[in-house]
């Protein structure tokens, strides 16, 4: 092989490795987000990707109902709109007793 051919092969190997690692990390992140969205339960505090914060009051297969603020406004969202979840901790109150 000529030196030019070796350089081309080396560049292709490097580009292939970079693509593989980027694809792998993207799949990991996507799997983590899917698990988070599927783990929500009634009573969990949720922040949507639009910045709305509230408590989950109802769940369906691909949607959930969020109750916001003291005026108890209820809004239905798709599960894909979840930005983050703060799990309801039922044990926190009983530890101080």
Task: Outline the structure in words.
The protein is of the alpha+beta class and 97 residues long. The protein has two domains: 1-38; 40-97, SH3 type barrels (Roll). The chain contains two helices and five strands. The chain has a five-stranded antiparallel beta sheet, with no helix packed on it.
CATH class of the largest domain, named: Mainly Beta
Would you report the number of β strands? 5
- Low-confidence parts: none
Distance between the termini: 77 Å
CATH architecture term of the largest domain = Roll
Global geometry: rod-shaped
Computed CA radius of gyration, to the nearest angstrom: 22 Å
Question: Could you say which structural class the secondary elements and strand pairing correspond to?
Answer: alpha+beta
Instruction: Look up the CATH topology of the largest domain.
Output: SH3 type barrels
**Biggest sheet overview:** 5 strands, antiparallel
């Amino acid at each position: 092989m000529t030196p030019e051919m070796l350089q081309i092969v080396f560049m292709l190997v490097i580009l292939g490795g970079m693509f593989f690692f980027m694809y792998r990390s993207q799949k990991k992140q996507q799997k983590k987000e899917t698990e988070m969205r599927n783990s929500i339960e009634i009573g969990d505090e949720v922040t949507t990707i639009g910045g709305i914060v509230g408590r989950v009051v109802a769940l369906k297969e691909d949607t959930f109902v969020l109750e916001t603020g003291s005026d108890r406004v209820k809004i239905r969202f798709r599960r894909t709109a979840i930005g983050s979840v703060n799990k309801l901790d039922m044990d926190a109150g009983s530890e101080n007793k």
